[in-house]
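Hi R.,

As promised on Friday, here is the backbone we talked about, encoded as structure tokens. Could you run it through your design pipeline when you get a chance and send me back a sequence?
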């Protein structure tokens, strides 16, 4: 991470080396356009020379004594020059704008691809809105600079070199007057940049905060409406938007002052050259045409410097954004692929948790020296109070997190040695928190089994007892489920999720409270489908409702991250321990006993 602290432009150029050829081509068109753009003052000087000096003008010395001939030649040259200037302008805009689009597209895909590789803990520590701001707003900001600012900077540099060279050639004696404001403008620009960079960084950070508020509120709009907190939420957004406005004003206060100050410095240089060169021309030391060129060129040299403020403004905003995007790209995933491949078809499904200890960051221990074995093809159940570590076991099995101690084996392989793709392809997860994507019922069932045939999807839906209700939807399998599946009931979403797992046909199935959000009738339907799909495959069931796991081969009772009881349903009831207690609470025997 050595380049983490280097300038964002250097980091960006290092990143964009694939576009080097296109950047050089666009730069060439910018330079050519500016060189032809600088020709008109020279042409005006020549015109003055023709009219004032007539028979002794430059063209006359080239063998065209007639003034009319000279003017026709000059007009022809002017048309050719302006024609080329227009061609180069078209090409530079075409190149820079397409380049901006390409870099933006590549950067967004790279950033998103990288984000997908980061571990779950990274997302839990950050807001979705903040990451959206980087993947969208910040990358767009960079595009805006490449669209306009890059060309402006190159053309400014071309102007300074070309016009400075022309001055030194034409009037070495007074050239320094025109160039005098330069060091002040450059120094002023540098100081301006240093001062404004942190202000724009603060603006970008605030965009993230504002975005995360908006994204959270839109996601929780039903809760906002049900608790009638619209005015409160509006005040929250107003406060964050106000801070954004103030941070922008803080940056604007500085950027707005830049141009007027630079303009006054430039005016001094312009006035100095006008007087000094004017006196030389009046005294016969300088040709009148050359004087015209000097005055116009001074304006051409110094005037673009007033735009330097806007360009640097764009540049600084883009660099603040670049910083954030490249920092995201440099976040290293802590959970990475192992060297071994293990195709799902070869997995028999034996799982061993060997002396596992785990705790989430800044929290007390969740699992404590936990050991348990799941034999291939068996169904085991994990039960226990909320917070006893049941769901954490699943997250560790899928390598969403790494244990601090111990190891997990799949068919004798330490899962850290396996490719993540192979490990997760072998496990089908049906969780209580079903996530459906905006799309059709068919797309949601076929998710993760790309290109699945409709017959297979229907067969999976039948197994999950979802086919009947799907056929009652407006467009059956082509019905759009809405964002997060909000157009369906909890039970319907759950059954689509089960159908998705059935279609994936994994050797290991994990059911994380798969029936928690449904009514009794739906639960019975889900229970029937689960009994069908668990046959012959390793299944880990996390259940609140103990009635759903009576037939498990082995039940592990957890308490505060440790296995406190193990056995079948009957054996555990006979022990009269924690499991018996949970069972009696659920079946109401405790209530009757107290009654």
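Update: got your reply. Pasting your designed sequence below so it's all in one thread:
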């Amino acid at each position: 991470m050595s380049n983490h602290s280097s300038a964002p432009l250097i980091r960006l150029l290092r990143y964009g080396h694939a576009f080097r050829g296109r950047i050089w081509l666009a730069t060439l068109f910018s330079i050519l356009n500016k060189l032809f753009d600088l020709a008109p003052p020279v042409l005006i000087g020549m015109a003055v020379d023709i009219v004032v000096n007539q028979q002794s003008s430059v063209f006359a010395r080239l063998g065209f004594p007639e003034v009319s001939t000279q003017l026709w030649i000059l007009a022809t040259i002017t048309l050719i020059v302006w024609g080329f200037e227009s061609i180069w302008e078209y090409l530079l805009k075409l190149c820079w704008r397409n380049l901006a689009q390409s870099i933006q597209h590549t950067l967004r895909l790279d950033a998103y691809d990288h984000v997908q590789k980061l571990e779950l803990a990274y997302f839990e520590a950050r807001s979705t809105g903040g990451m959206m701001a980087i993947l969208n707003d910040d990358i767009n900001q960079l595009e805006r600079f490449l669209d306009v600012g890059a060309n402006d900077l190159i053309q400014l540099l071309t102007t300074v070199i070309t016009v400075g060279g022309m001055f030194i050639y034409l009037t070495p004696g007074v050239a320094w007057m025109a160039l005098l404001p330069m060091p002040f403008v450059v120094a002023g620009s540098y100081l301006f940049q240093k001062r404004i960079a942190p202000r724009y960084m603060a603006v970008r950070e605030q965009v993230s905060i504002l975005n995360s508020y908006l994204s959270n509120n839109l996601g929780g709009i039903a809760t906002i409406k049900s608790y009638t907190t619209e005015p409160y939420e509006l005040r929250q957004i107003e406060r964050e938007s106000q801070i954004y406005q103030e941070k922008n004003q803080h940056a604007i206060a500085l950027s707005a002052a830049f141009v007027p100050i630079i303009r006054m410095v430039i005016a001094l240089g312009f006035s100095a050259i006008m007087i000094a060169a004017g006196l030389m021309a009046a005294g016969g030391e300088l040709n009148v045409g050359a004087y015209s060129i000097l005055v116009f060129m001074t304006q051409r040299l110094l005037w673009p410097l007033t735009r330097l403020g806007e360009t640097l403004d764009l540049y600084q905003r883009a660099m603040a954004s670049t910083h954030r995007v490249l920092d995201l790209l440099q976040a290293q995933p802590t959970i990475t692929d192992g060297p071994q491949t293990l195709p799902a078809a070869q997995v028999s499904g034996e799982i061993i948790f060997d002396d596992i200890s785990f705790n989430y960051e800044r929290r007390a221990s969740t699992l404590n020296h936990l050991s348990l074995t799941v034999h291939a093809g068996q169904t085991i159940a994990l039960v226990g109070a909320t917070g006893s570590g049941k769901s954490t076991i699943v997250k560790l099995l899928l390598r969403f997190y790494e244990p601090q101690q111990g190891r997990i084996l799949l068919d004798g392989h330490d899962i850290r040695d396996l490719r993540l793709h192979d490990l997760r392809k072998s496990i089908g997860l049906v969780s209580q928190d079903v996530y459906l994507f905006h799309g059709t019922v068919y797309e949601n069932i076929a998710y993760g089994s790309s290109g699945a045939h409709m017959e297979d999807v229907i067969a999976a839906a039948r197994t999950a007892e979802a086919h009947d209700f799907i056929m009652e939807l407006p467009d059956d399998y082509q019905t759009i489920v809405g964002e997060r599946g909000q157009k369906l009931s909890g039970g319907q979403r759950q059954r689509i999720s089960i159908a998705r797992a059935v279609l994936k046909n994994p050797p290991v199935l994990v059911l994380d409270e798969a029936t928690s959000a449904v009514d009794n009738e739906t639960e019975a339907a889900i229970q029937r489908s689960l009994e069908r799909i668990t046959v012959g495959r390793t299944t880990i069931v996390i259940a609140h409702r103990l009635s759903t796991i009576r037939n498990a081969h082995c039940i592990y009772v957890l308490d505060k991250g440790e296995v406190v009881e193990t056995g079948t349903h009957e054996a555990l009831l006979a022990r009269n321990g924690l499991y018996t207690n949970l069972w009696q609470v659920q079946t109401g025997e405790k209530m009757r006993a107290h009654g």
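One thing I noticed while checking it: The chain has 23 helices and ten strands.

Thanks again,
M.
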